Known about the structure:
Layout: H1 4-10, H2 33-44, E1 49-50, E2 61-65, E3 70-77, E4 82-85, E5 97-100
Antiparallel strand pairs: 1-5, 2-3, 2-5, 3-4
Amino acid sequence: MTDAPERIWHSIDRRGKINGSPDAHVQPCEDSLPAYVEYVRADLAPSWQPIKTAPKSSKAILVHCGDRRNTYAVTWFRLYEGWAIFGGGALNEKPTHWMPLPAPPAE
């Protein structure tokens, strides 16, 4: 039996639409299933997770850097295999934890 994130993942069709929704931006790829499942699980119960479990994708997440106690919105920049601060530049600090961005306001 699959859990909820896996059922959601497998409901995405080849055009990247979730149950026919034209707003979906996900392209199914079995190689990225583990990262997707981890992201959805974290999003269902947002809390700080160890950085080693962070999804390395273009989806923005929050990271916390323990040394300076800074928090940034980042994405994974696969070209140089590192985190990039959302909106500019490479992250020069070492993140220790991550969590998904909160949902946008309803209004």
